[in-house]
Amino acid sequence: MESTAPMVKADNEDLRYEAIDSLDLRFAELRLASPEAIARIHEEVEQEGLRHPLLVSDGVEEKKLVVIDGFKRVRVARDLGHVRVAVRVVHLAAVPAQVTILSANGPRRGLSEFEEGLVVQRLHREHGMSQVEIAVLLGRHKSWVCRRMSLVERLESGVQQDLRLGLVSASLVRDLVRLPRGTQGPAARAIATHRLSSRQAAQLVRVLSVVDASQRQDVLDRPLSHLPQPRDADRYPDDPRLSAAGNRVRQHLLRFRAASHRVIETLRGHDARAFPTVQLEVLADIGKDVTTPAREALARVERLLSSKTRRDDVGSRTPAAAGL
Q1: CB 94 within 8 A of CB 127
Q2: pTM over 0.70
Q3: How many alpha carbons fall within 13 Å on the CB side of residue 264?
Q4: Tens digits of per-residue pLDDT, 78-115?
Q5: Do the domain assignments include residue 7?
Q6: Quick check: is 157 in a domain?
Q7: In angstroms, how far is CA 163 from the centroid of its own chain?
């Protein structure tokens, strides 16, 4: 199955179709492919085909077409059963080809900082270029090169593998590398398990950076209990569709939901054996004081919702609602 996208040949380009299996993907390890990105491209290719040719170089190694741009499209096209794809062939040696990976993904389609670091590291480690030489080649300051390479080299190999599998977001790297090795992996897993936002992830890293070693595991097990809670005005801004009274009810319900989640999170994995009898007695008294009004509040909410259902039912039986 070939792409049906039209190919317009420019004077300085070599545009043609090539078998997918003949393409060399040696630079694919310099790119990350999140499941979300793959799913989006999969849908686009199913609906519209491969609209743009892949960028490949025939100058990295003799008789090899090495992909420079379009790794996710190759993966999707192969999954969809494409046999041949359109490619735009340029003649670039290994170093300029890898530099082109950066330039081919400019501000609009940019690489993550970690991916930029992978390219920089490869130029330094495999091609023997100094950081100053890389900076000149890329038109960047030496500090930019140093920061990018540091992101890669300070990140645990296990977290790097999770990044490649799409289990960790590239946006978390800058925060995770602030932690010592041995803590980065557990922190990344805690962020994923508890579905922390980017802001919460940064807060977790700050807490782990200063917390006593004896408390670190508890922070990882119950991160939400250790993070600063945002102000109500920030967490629950007014809904313009509601009146003042409606917004007060909404905010109380959202706070109730958040508190319920925190209780569930705190008690997860802790049964009665985790608490001495005297503690259980204290918690039982507080629990009675909480559960009685909580049940009444939930009953009132249910009555409110049931009144809406009755109104909807009445409205659906009127001639106007029935379209008569």
Answers
A1: yes
A2: no
A3: 7
A4: 999 999 999 999 999 999 999 999 887 754 456 899 99
A5: no
A6: no
A7: 9
